[in-house]
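Fold this sequence, please.
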Amino acid sequence: MKQPKIDLPKSRFEQVLDAIGLIVFIGSIVYLVYVFGGLPDEVPAHFNGSGEADRWGSKMELWILPLIGGGLWLLMTFLSKYPHTFNYLNLREDNIEAQYQNARLMMNVLKNEIVIFFGFITYQTIQVAKGAEEGLGIAFLPVFLAVILGSTFYFMFRMLKL
């Protein structure tokens, strides 16, 4: 079956998630600009699995985080406009619209979770550089993985139920 293109407006929930993601993204950039001049020349550039800084680099490297987060957000926003190009396990004529909405919502949730995590990492990296924190925290990696994988599995389960 050729997957049809269907114009589905964004749900209110998707609009709210996008607004939250954009606020966090813009807020992290504004905060970075605000504190940038007062940061030391060397800042944490990488954290290990325990959330401890294990490599230090130039404070210019802090710009990599918002660039990656913003780039992923834009890419996933673009891709979510084409749910008819995604792979589905059980797409049928009677569930096409529901499957497309589920897939698009999954992309929306994931992209906003990612940009929020990148905002948090930017903030925490600045705090470590200023000496206010010691790292991301030991819970960061398990929480990040639980949120991203949990969301993915949730939407995959929904796809199978539809």
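Residues 12-32+43-161 form one domain. Residues 16 and 145 are 23 Å apart (CA to CA).
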